[in-house]
Amino acid sequence: MRREIDESASSIKSNRRRGFTLVELLVVIGVIAVLIGILLPVLSRARAQANRVACLSNIKQLGTAILMYCNDNDGYFPTCAWWDDGLAYMPYAEDWVHWQANRNLDDSAIARYVGQGEQLKSILRCPADSFDGRQPALGIIPGQGPNLYSYGMNAGAGSNDRPYPGWRTKITQWRAPARKLLITESRDKGNSAPLWAGSRLTQRHGTGTSGGQTIATRASTLFFDNHAESVSDALVENSLFHRRPDFE
C-alpha cells in the first residue's frame, strides 16, 4: 500500500514538473502573433487620430491668439516672420513667432495670448511632426537656424519686408473669411520659416492621389473666420485667392 502511495505521489510531482510541450508553445506564440497583427494597425490608427485632434487644437489656439492680437492692435495682423536675408526681409517685433535660434521665442507677438516657454513650443508643434532633416533657407544671415515649428501664417496677412514697417492688413479687409486660410501646415520639405506663401500642404496626417500625384488630404488648417478643419491640397490650388484679401 505504501509503495502505491509513493508511486502516486511521484506521478503527481512529475506531472507538476511537466511544462508546455513544443507544440503548445508554438500555438501560444502563433496566437500572440495574430493578436499583435490585429492590434498594431488599430493602435496606429488611434495614435494618428489622436495626433490630428491635438494638431487641430493647437492651430485653433494659435488662431485665437492671432485674432486677440488683432483686437489689441486696431485690427492689424502680426507679420508672418520671414527669415532675415539682409535684402528683402528683416526681423520685426510684430512677427507672430520669433522662431529663430538667435531670438527669444517668448517675445513672439502671440506669446502673451497663449503662454510662454515650453507651453508655447508645444502649441507650435504638431505631435506628428518630427523635424528630421530641417535645414535653414539658403542665403540667409547665419545664426537663425532651421524652423523647428509646424505651422505657418498666411504671408498675405502681413510681411516683415525691408525697410520697416513693411506692410500689414486689417482683419476687416479680408473678404470670404470662411474660405481663406490663415494658418496651416506647409509641406515639410522646404519649410524654412513659419509662414504659408502658396506651397503645398503637409502629408504627415494622410495622403491621397490626384492626377497621378500624391497629395495631402488631412492638413490642419484655420481660416480667417477662426474655424479649423482638416483639408487637402485641393484647397490651395488657387493659392492667390488665399493670399489676396480683396478676392471673393
Give a concise summary.
By secondary structure, this protein is of the alpha+beta class.
Sketch the topology as an H/E string, one letter per element.
HHHHEEEEEEEEEH
Domain module count: 1
- Low-confidence sequence ranges: none
Given the C-alpha coordinates, what overall shape results?
A: elongated
- The rounded distance between the terminal residues' Cα atoms is 103 Å
Please provide the count of β strands. 9
Summed over residues and divided by their number, the pLDDT gives a mean of 89
Q: Considering DSSP H and I runs of 4 or more, what fraction of the residues is helical? A: 25-40%
Query: What Rg is obtained from the alpha carbons, in whole angstroms?
Result: 28 Å
Give the number of helices: 5
Describe the structure.
The protein is 33% helix and 12% strand. The chain has 248 residues and is an alpha+beta fold. The chain has one domain (21-243). The protein is built from five helices and nine strands.
